[in-house]
Amino acid sequence: MRAETVTVGTEILLGQTVDSNAARLGQVLADCGVDHYHRQAVGDNVGRIAEAIQLALSRADLVVTIGGLGPTEDDTTREGVAKATGLPLVEHAETLADLEELFRRRNLTWLESQARQAHLPRGSEPIPNPNGTAPGLWLPLADGKVVACFPGPPREFNPMVETWLRDRLASLGHPPLVSITVRVTGIGESLVEEKLRDMLDSPLATVATYAKTAEVHVRVAAKGLAAAQTMAEAVRERLGPNVYALGSSTLPEVVVARLCDRRETLAVAESCTGGLLGGAVTSVAGSSDVFLGGFLAYSNGLKASLLGVAQSTLERRGAVSEECAVEMAQGAQRAAGADWAISVTGIAGPGGGSEEKPVGLVWIAMVGPSGCVAHRSLLPGNRATIRERAVARALNLLRLALD
User: Fold this and answer.
1) Is the pLDDT reported for residue 23 higher than 90?
2) pTM of the predicted model, to two decimals?
3) Helix/strand/coil percent split, the chain, to 5
4) What is the rounded CA–CA span in Å between residue 14 and residue 109?
5) Hey, what domains does the chain have and what are their CATH numbers?
6) Which one, out of 147, 226, 263, 350, has a CA that is 20 to 30 A from the CA of 316?
7) How would you class 102 by CB atoms within 10 Å of its CB: exposed for 0-12, middle for 13-18, buried for 19 or more?
């Protein structure tokens, strides 16, 4: 089965409302094994709504509309469905009686405009709305296709989609569309795509790459869990140690978990990242078992007094240098008594760079049981991006050492 979504609401087109409903609907469709290839948004206009529904019916078996089912003049989805399908609106007596009883029970003033919510395209099955007045509708068509309409307020839409629609679609027995995210760091999206090029057109699963600020996500999607897992493992094998996780685990979570498994501890020394590295580690629940603390030594004076960086190093090589990074890491390890220590020092910009040491230059050093290593990186982006990428580089350096 192939589905298409049509969201109705001028406020969506104007950017005044974010269409979170469509995202939730996409998840439900995938869970129920329904292919979802197109999504439209259209304003509160009967003609344009009808055009959008007709286009959707030309290429989908199920058209789901969101919004425009209320009692006011701008709620025109029912009229749009009627025009698109050529079916007249008729009063659904049971729905009208339910609405009138609801208003009596709540002691609300009944307006004749409320009755519009009981006018449904002929042949429609009302969908109960336990949290609002506007029912949804399920309209089977003569050619076997279906139009399903749901109200727009999320507190009404989400329960109806998560219960009624999910149950209706699950009864069809389609295998779910399962997505697994392969999380990659240390290489860029272009290289990831090159390494996976022959997998991108696989008939067994959909494989797509997505660039993030400091990593790449490879989405593997297939009908059924086994097929998705098989392809995800193949991607992991192809990309090797650049893959740090399958699923939702973040890089800090992976690092903390490995430190916990090894029962080893970590300390950090930061300059240009200004506490972001320590913050990333401590954002993970349970990090207190392995993280001893950090040193935020931004000035040369604190690099010397807190971490023991030699004055001669600062004068001859500068704060952004391999030597300074190594001494910062050694000082953090020594002061904290940690098994591992990582240091970051660099030029995040936008000023402060030179031809010899440009903006984006970052030195990362790591001290551990097997000794000390230092890495030089020239990171692109603005100040925030450089700092974020430096944190990711530091964590990945430790992850690889912990493998």
Assistant:
1) yes
2) 0.86
3) 45, 25, 35
4) 32
5) 2-170 (3.40.980.10), 177-246 (3.30.70.2860), 251-402 (3.90.950.20)
6) 350
7) middle
